[in-house]
Amino acid sequence: MAAMNSDDTKPRRRKRGRRSPLASVALVLTGLLITGGAYALFTATSPANASVDMTSAQTIEQGKKLFAANCATCHGLNLSGSDAGPSLIGVGAAAVDFQVGTGRMPLAQDGPQAEVKPRVFDDEATLQMAAYVASISPGPGIPASSDLALTGDATKGAELFRINCAMCHNVAGAGGALTEGKYAPNLQNTSAAHIYEAMLTGPQNMPVFNDDNITPQEKQDIITALKAQNKDAGVGGFQLGSLGPVAEGLFLWIFGLGAVIAFTVWLTAKSN
Amino acid sequence: MANDDSQDIVPSDGHVTTTRSPGTAVERADALHNPGLPPHRLRVTDTDPKKATRAERIVVALFYVSIVGSIFAMAAYFAFPIKPNDLGSVRLNNVFIGIGLAFALLAVGVAAVHWAKTLMVDHEGIDVRHPVSGTPAVQARAVEIFRTADRESGFNRRVLIRNGMIAAFAALPFPAIFLFRDLGPAVGTPAEAYSHTMWKQGTRLTKDPTGDPIRASDVTIGSVFHVIPEGLNDAEDKLEEKGKAAVLLMRLEPGDLHVSADRADWNYNGIIAYSKICTHVGCPVALYEQQTHHLLCPCHQSQFDITREAAVIFGPAVRPLPQLPITVDSEGYLVARSDFHEPVGPSFWERRGDYNA
Questions:
Q1: pTM of the predicted protein model
Q2: Range(s) of the domain holding residue B232
Q3: Which of B293, B299, B341 lies closest to B316, judged by CA?
Q4: What are phi and psi of B248, to 5 degrees?
Q5: Which of B217, B250, B290 comes nearest A206 by C-beta?
Q6: Residues facing residue B325 across a β-bridge
Q7: In this structure, which topology does domain A50-136 adopt according to CATH?
Q8: Is A268 on the interface with B (CB under 8 A)?
Q9: ipTM for the predicted complex
């Protein structure tokens, strides 16, 4: 890296201001950064913030309407499923909050697996549908905020993550490939509630990790460890996506060896 | 041969040819004619004093850049100290000291090369290769030293001493072979050690890493448990045993399983246990897809179909994963019916080929 940095000889272009050829580039870059930052700020809302009474008949009735209009085509009017979608009997409110709250549902198109998309429903509508699905048949509920306090034991959580999760999601939670186009998603920006719900319900091809397998306390430990890891990310410098030795090796082969070759050519070339 | 041929070399223009021995190099009579050196080309710094001054300034500037880098690294050491329990401070410390040192070292190197290439005297020179062998006098003296040493030590006269010394040196490496044997299993042959694991009849299945036993009712459909045998955490050779005994426990709808007749009682209501050690080269196979019931090995993409007794459906593995026969005990905990019926993990020389025959 250092070798490349030193090659940037800084052009001495002072007092040329907006006439500089780099001015337009800087302007576009600033605009993009501001737009992107604002977008990230507005979309990064926690899923369980809206206050909805999950047991009231009105919420359930509202949820039933939303379900009938948006989900029943595939999952059936009585949640029994169809050729196009699985039965939702017993999946619980947690599954609805995870699938709809991350934008995976409603599905946009057939594919190896449902992907994270911009959300179609806001928190209120999501929770109304979750209340309806939970009212038909009981299942795992949405975790309480006390379960997501991030006060667990990160050391223990990291060990549990390595044993139960890291083989698919990568030790740093960067995600990884599965078979036939499926993949385990990146967890670094997933909210604590969604991680908790995924463990509880086993969305798509992820196995279920019920409370007898990984206790609520252990789930908290795992989430604490993941969040702690993200906070202290990159002690060694650039992470290159935390993908491990393949990505890092490729980077060194191209840029490290490239710099070595460039220097060798310069060393042996005769000065003109 | 080579000496005879060397007489035939035609001296090229302005080029000195020696008739000294070329050593072991083979010289041929029809060797390529030596084209000599290309004409000398002057550099711009040789002809234009302005360019020479500019090159000199660049070299000096680079040396100053190096000094700045060194000072920067020292300043960074104090400006970005490593604080306890703050890994972010380690990163800043590393980055800025590294940038300073990189500039300090690189600028010196670039300056030295630029100096040599543009300003130092530029002329082509020839280093003639020296003959490899010594002069006859030196050779005779070396032989004489050896003879004297032999005569005075009696190396060839006292044959018993000489042979004793050779035998002593020959025996020296043998203790190492016995020490290396310690890397293998303490009891029995390696093949025996590979063929058995900690599992035996009645061993409870416990959770990795806590060692808590698992009830059959805990394992809901779609669940995956990472399992170690009861008592593994107290075992003396915990890691070796875990490397063989690690098991993945899954529950499917019993109707999804295709169970062969001799394995009819190996699962419990759709709860099945398979070795986690890949039969290819022994990576832990634990990437279980709940909907397709495929197990994927992350190392070389072998895939096993759990509904068909872990048959290989893709990749380099040649055998299904060994299944651990399980049942429940009187308290409802999952226990092993026996050890695996075949060695787990990759092939080895002494592995019999008829386990699944």
A1: 0.71
A2: 190-350
A3: B299
A4: -110, 125
A5: B290
A6: none
A7: Cytochrome Bc1 Complex; Chain D, domain 2 (1.10.760)
A8: no
A9: 0.74
